[in-house]
Design goal:
5-stranded mixed sheet; Aspartate Aminotransferase, domain 1; 3-stranded antiparallel sheet; single chain; 39% helix; globular; alpha/beta; 459 residues; Aspartate Aminotransferase, domain 2; binds ligand F0G
Length: 459
């Protein structure tokens, strides 16, 4: 595209449409009350613009739907499996690829094999399911993102970077207790922020010097590679697949949710080089997911993912993807709404602590904002703060490092006018932020409480 024009062009046109259902404010008020003020409990038909997650919610392409017709549902050794395996290895040339139904299944398998009591797993920032799977194995999940990555307002091109000094210190002291180091690209819980190639190289060097494997949580690898291409010195001339392959070459394995960058509605994988660990993982896979050539997936899913992986690394798509997310973030910033900056890849994160400074952390300012966005404009977002991360393994409740509300953008799904509407609603809510109530939790499940907890407004 001619760089002199600024309008963001979606690099596709619409081929098949889905209706959106309009609701009144009164309908939304009763829907959210029935849902116990938890956005996860809403019926999606009562949501107008669904920014709860970018996971499995994107639009598949014509070529993905066509690929689905090639799905071969043989139990073992299906050609769909071999196409999928080749597409994964084209970008991530690990020796073993183990298909799973989604990312957390890959996490469950690897931490069943490598986790356990007395162990500690560092990560720039664990995503909620990753943390839960580490802790379920009895191990400690430790977040060691750089200091800039814990502050919503600080500008840094690679706020997802791992604190390499902290990694070095941990491995110096306890390498024997660290079965694996994880790097999440991009860093979802910390604002969708990228990790630089230099940081991945540094982490790889430290891990390998201490004999500890480095794994990637690579859900948003293509977005991360695009940021490297755009922001890191010496990278702007490289092809995206080439950057991805270098990232993979620095690691010993990966977990993947193919519901993100690979444009799947379902899917994931675990990949790694170590033969012995791979064998142990396949033994768990067969118990929980399925035979090693389909994991938890149908042949048609494997086909859709093989095609999606090719589309995910296309520069026209990535340029549009990252610019359109920034379009929302920049507009909110210009309207005075506090957002995590720079704007991340798959989502805009509103700083609810700054916006609702009258609500204490243990009355969940992020939840308060997310509920208000739904009541006001039918927008579903997701709290990433004390509701998600506040409950500690010892049973106490502590404020999370940040109180964020994530507006996650499903891939290739909403148009710029949908986003203009979101900007209008968020700005309107920000104007009466001081009138929003805090919340108390009236029902709390034991694990991953944010999914099914119920709340009540205070006062
Ligand atoms: N790792 C990261 C960084 C993720 O963002 C997710 C999912 C997972 C692992 C788990 O993958 O859902 O396929 O089991 N994130 C979604 C989200 C749910 O909304 O951010 P999964």
């Amino acid at each position: 595209m001619d760089q002199n024009f600024h309008t963001i062009i979606e690099p596709f046109r619409i081929h098949s449409v889905e209706p959106l259902r309009m609701t009144t404010r009164a309908e939304r008020a009763s829907a959210i009350e029935r849902a116990g003020f938890n956005l996860f409990n809403l019926h999606s038909q009562d949501v107008l613009i669904d920014l709860l997650t970018d996971s499995g919610t994107g639009a598949m392409s014509r070529d993905q739907w066509a690929a689905i017709q090639h799905g071969d549902e043989s139990y073992a050794g299906s050609p769909s499996w071999f196409r999928f395996e080749a597409a994964v290895k084209e970008l991530f040339p690990f020796k073993h690829v183990i298909p799973t139904h989604q990312g957390r299944a890959a996490e469950k398998i690897i931490f069943t094999v490598l986790g356990g009591r007395g162990k500690v797993v560092p990560n720039n920032t664990h995503f909620d399911t990753t943390r839960a799977n580490v802790e379920a194995s009895g191990a400690e999940a430790r977040d060691i993102v750089i200091a800039e990555g814990r502050d919503a307002a600080t500008i840094h091109p690679f706020k997802g970077n791992m604190d390499l000094e902290a990694l070095e210190a941990l491995l110096e002291e306890r390498a024997g207790d660290v079965p694996v180091v994880f790097l999440t690209i991009t860093n979802n819980s910390g604002g969708g922020q990228p990790v630089s190639l230099a940081n991945i190289r540094g982490a790889s060097e430290i891990c390998h010097r201490h004999g500890v494997p480095l794994f990637l949580d690579a859900c948003r690898f293509a977005e991360n590679a695009w940021f490297i291409h755009e922001r890191e010195e010496g990278q702007s001339q490289r092809e995206i697949p080439d950057i991805v392959r270098e990232i993979a070459s620095l690691a010993d394995g990966m977990t993947m949710s193919a519901k993100k960058d690979p444009f799947g509605n379902i899917g994931g994988w675990l990949a790694l080089n170590d033969d012995y660990v791979a064998e142990s993982c396949r033994n768990v896979l067969i118990l929980t997911e399925g035979f090693p050539t389909y994991g938890g997936l149908a042949g048609r899913d494997l086909e859709a993912l093989a095609q999606g992986l090719k589309e995910a690394v296309h520069p026209d798509y990535l340029r549009y993807r990252i610019r359109s997310t920034a379009y929302l973030g920049d507009a909110l910033d210009a309207a005075g709404v506090p957002v995590v900056k720079p704007i991340g890849g798959h989502a805009v994160y509103i700083d609810a602590k700054a916006m609702l400074d009258h609500i204490p952390a243990l009355q969940y300012p992020g939840q308060a904002l997310a509920v208000a966005l739904y009541q006001t404009g039918g927008i579903r977002s997701c709290e990433i703060g004390t509701v998600m991360f506040g409950r500690q393994p010892d049973g106490t409740e502590l404020p999370a490092a940040m109180e964020l509300v994530r507006l996650a953008i499903p891939r290739r799904t909403y148009t710029q006018s949908h986003i203009d509407y979101v900007i209008e609603v968020v700005t309107a809510v920000a104007q009466h932020a001081e009138s929003l109530p805090g919340y108390r939790m009236v029902h709390e499940p034991k694990a991953l409480r944010h999914f099914t907890a119920r709340f009540e407004p205070i006062g």
